[in-house]
Amino acid sequence: FFSVSNVEKDTVYTINIMNATATFKNQLFRRIFRFAMFSTVSESWTRLKTKPTIERNFMFDGHGNRLFTVSFKFRPAYGGDTIFLAPNPPYSFSHLKARLQHLKQKYKGQSDGPSPKPDIIQETALSRSPGGNPVQMVTITDPGPAEQQMDKKVAVLVGRTRASDVASSWAMDGFMEFLCSPDPVACALRRNMIFVMVPMLCVDGVVAGHVTTNDAGKDLKQEWKRPSLAKSPEVLAVKHLLRTLVVNSRNGSNEVILFSEICGMSSRRNMQYDCCRNGVMTANVYLREQMLPKYFSEILPWFGMSDCRFEVPEPDAYDSFACVWKEFEVVNRCDYAVRKTPKAECLV
C-alpha cells in the first residue's frame, strides 16, 4: 500500500508508480481497475472514481525489460487526514480470525435442553505453516445424526494461495457469511452438503507481507504436485485431507463432488471456471464438470461461460485443480477464479 499524510481538503493529489511492469500495460487494467482508498478520519475504504493512466518511461528492470509509470489521482475529503491506497482493501490473518469468531458467535447453536446444539460452523487448525502460523480449516453444514451426515456430499474450497491475492480472501469471507445465513438457498445447501474450506492457505505470506511465498520461500500455487513437509506443509495437509475424504467417499460415505481453488487474479473482465474435462463418454459423467459453470452463467450476468476452460492438463501441470483431477479423480474438479470487475465488486 501507499500512504500520504497531512493532506489538504479538496486538493487533487497524483501518485506515480514508476516501476510498473508490462503487466500493467494491459488495456483491461486501464479500463476497469480502481485503487482503494482508506481515510483515517472516516475509517472506511472506498474505490477511487478516476482511472489510472499508464505510460512508458525511461527505466528498465534487471532483465532489460521496459518499465511503465502508473498514475492515478485522488481528492481527500478531510484536511490533516492520512490516506492509505491499495489495489484492494487489505484482508489480514487477524481479520480472518476475528471474522471466524464473529460467525461462530452469530450462528452459535442454541438449545432448550440440557446439552447445547452443535454449531453450523466449526473451526480447527489443519496444519502449521513453516513460520509456525496455524492454517485454519472451516467446516459448514447443518448438524444432525451421523447416518444423515454420511449421506451428504462434500465440497472442498481453498483460498488465498498467494498472499497478494486479497480478492480471494474477500470472496471466501462472503461465501462463508452466506453459507451460515438463514437464506433459503444456504439452508438447502447446508442440509445436503458439507463445505470444507481453507480460507487462507498462504498464511505466512499474509503475516510477513510476502507477495507469493511462505516463510520457506515456496510459492504454494506451484507446490501441488510434490509438496514438502518441511517447505510446503500447508499444501501437504490439504492433499492429505482430500485423500481422506476421497477414501471415505469410495467407501460409500460423503461423496466429494467439488474441489475449487478461489482465485482473484486474472486479466479477463468477468468470472469463470478453469477445470479439467472428464474424457468419459458415459451418460452419467459426460459433461458433468460443466454443469456448475453453466448454471452460474444463467443466473449471474458477470459470469462468462465462453471464458471457461475445460482441458486435460499436461503431464507436468502443477496447478491445484490439475493435481486433484489426476490424483483423486474428483468429478467436478474446478479452479474457480474471481474476477476484479465492477460487476463483481460485491465479491471483491
Describe this structure in words.
The protein has 348 residues and is of the alpha/beta class. The protein has 9 helices and 15 strands. It has helices at 27-32, 93-106, 146-150, 166-180, 184-192, 203-208, 233-250, 291-299, 320-328, and strands at 2-4, 13-20, 36-39, 44-47, 53-60, 66-74, 83-86, 121-128, 134-140, 153-159, 193-198, 256-262, 272-275, 309-310, 332-337. The strands form 3 sheets. Strands 8-9-11-10-12-15-13-14 form an 8-stranded mixed sheet, with helices on both faces. A hairpin with a 4-residue loop joins strand 3 and strand 4. The longest helix is centred in the last third of the chain and has 18 residues, at 233-250. The radius of gyration is 22 Å and the shape is globular. Residues 332-348 have low confidence and may be disordered.
Which regions are unreliable across 5 or more consecutive residues at pLDDT < 50? 332-348
* Overall pLDDT score: 81
**Major sheet size, sense and barrel closure:** 8 strands, mixed
Which structural class should the secondary elements be placed in? alpha/beta
Assess the beta-strand content as a share of residues.
Answer: 25-35%
What integer value in Å does the Rg equal?
A: 22 Å
Strand order across the biggest sheet? Answer: 8-9-11-10-12-15-13-14
Level of helix content?
25-40%
> How many beta strands in the DSSP annotation?
15
What shape does the CA trace take? globular
Order of helices and strands: EEHEEEEEHEEHEHHEHHEEHEHE
> For the terminal residues, how far apart are their CA atoms?
17 Å
Number of helices: 9
